[in-house]
Design goal:
This protein is of the alpha/beta class and about 425 residues long. The chain folds into two domains: about 130 residues, no CATH class; about 280 residues, 3-Layer(aba) Sandwich (Rossmann fold), CATH 3.40.50. About 45% of the residues lie in helices and about 15% in strands. The protein has 19 helices and eleven strands. The strands form two sheets. Strands 7-6-5-8-9-11-10 form a seven-stranded mixed beta sheet, with helices on both faces.
Length: about 425
């Protein structure tokens, strides 16, 4: 069987047609018969106990799922297993982008896989991972230049794209839901929580690391604070400046196109919401050390971060995954232990609060995905193709499954610097 003939007869009529100049190599599956056979054996073993139903072209089914369980329709099994065999951490997502398999319940299907993420590969084979796992490319390291390039690839896609699925707050991070909250109210609840951890009040001088589209800075300014907000996304800065001006806070908020490593001054409070995931483990000491340097005696730091268990973080730290290739190059999700140790080893800050709300993130992601799908025609009008639609849907559903399963969590942390008397 040649690569070009893999599953030719079973290609669905509506399968996306990835253009080579936009999606290099995606339309043609790799060809590795031995690895494909191994991947098929491992996949069949992995799905056997899962509450899913994998439907093959001949109607046969894999998995333990019964009536009502999520269904994975495997249209091109050979292409799917070749992709998995060559690089499972990238091939599974690419096979969805290319239309090798489909489902009507993507997040529900991915959740059982996420629940067993740590044991999908049998323990006896885990020791061979270092020989087959791709390493993150050096070009995606978060140097000053590399970080700007990495951020550009995601956050500078289009402000209009993000506006199609985010709520009016334009917050691109987990909300915290209260009874009867809509998404905007829940996002403001989240912002108030992290600002409280940072002790932001009337007269506070605040440093925000990671502007987003300006909502946290607006919320802090509404409390009477003065905010210096840092971003390395030109697209985000442009819209953040506009939104801050429309809110009437241009005199209280200064958005700077500036890396956190280039920041200056001292502040009463530092806040950062889901930016640490883009820092990279090699730069966590610099990140935490910078925060310690920017805080005045008695100042406070409010941090929101996606987290994962420490052993899983260590196991995945150097791996190059689908998320790195297509969504967040150069990123790494920390563990709570990594945050605690980073603070302890690089600052004099002490913990003064923590909360976890991973299921709120699952709900946030579900709302984003529903809105993205509902408004796909508007996204397409911006110039994004069907492969992008499948990629973005997979990203949102894959992330939702991570939080639904508990594989991923999200935490807010509060830290405080010693005051002048303690320092003395």
């Amino acid at each position: 069987m040649t690569t070009s003939s893999i599953d030719r007869a079973t290609v669905p009529a509506d399968r996306p047609k990835p253009e080579e100049n936009h999606w290099p190599g995606l339309d043609t599956p790799p060809h590795s018969p031995l690895r494909a056979r191994i991947a098929e054996s491992l996949f069949r073993h992995a799905v056997r106990p899962l509450d899913v139903s994998v439907v093959l072209p001949d109607g046969k089914r894999l998995g333990a799922g019964g009536e009502g369980s999520p269904e994975m329709r495997l249209h091109r099994p050979a292409a799917f297993f070749h992709r998995l065999g060559v690089d499972a951490k990238i091939g599974f997502g690419e096979s969805y982008m290319a239309g090798d398999w489909t489902t009507d319940r993507l997040a529900e299907l991915l959740t059982p896989f996420a629940e067993r993420m740590a044991v999908v590969i049998p323990p006896v084979l885990q020791k061979f991972r270092r020989f087959v796992d791709r390493r993150q490319p050096t070009v995606e390291q978060n140097t000053l230049e590399g970080a700007r390039a990495n951020i550009h690839r995601h956050y500078d896609l289009s402000n209009d794209l993000f506006a199609t699925f985010l709520d009016e707050s334009m917050m691109y991070s987990s909300a915290i839901f209260g009874p009867d909250d809509d998404l905007t109210v829940a996002q403001h609840r989240k912002l108030d929580s992290v600002l409280d951890y940072a002790g932001v009040r009337d007269g506070s001088e605040v440093l925000e690391i990671g502007t987003g589209w300006g909502e946290l800075a607006i919320r802090a300014a509404a409390r009477g604070a003065r905010v210096t907000s840092l971003t390395i996304s030109q697209e985000q800065k442009t819209l953040a400046d506009q939104r801050i001006a429309e809110a009437g806070f241009s005199d209280r908020v200064d958005v700077q196109l500036c890396d956190y490593r280039e920041s200056q001054g001292e502040f009463d409070a530092v806040v950062s919401v889901e930016m640490i995931e883009a820092v990279g483990a090699d730069y966590w000491p610099t990140f935490f050390g910078t925060i310690g340097q920017r805080l005045r005696p008695g100042g406070k730091f409010g941090l929101q971060a996606i987290t994962m268990d420490h052993d899983r973080m260590l196991a995945s730290a150097a791996s190059y995954t689908w998320i790195h290739k297509y969504i967040f190059p150069g990123g790494l999700i920390p563990s709570t232990r990594a945050v605690a140790e980073g603070i302890k080893e690089n600052t004099q800050l002490k913990a003064n609060g923590v909360r976890e709300f991973g299921q709120d993130y699952a709900r946030t992601l579900r709302l984003w995905r529903e809105r993205f799908n509902q408004r796909w025609a508007e996204v397409a009008d911006l110039g994004f193709d069907e492969v992008f639609r499948r990629m973005w849907e997979f990203y949102l559903a894959y992330s939702e499954a991570g939080f639904r399963s508990g594989y991923l969590k999200v935490h807010q942390f509060g830290f405080a610097a010693p005051d002048a008397s303690d320092a003395g």
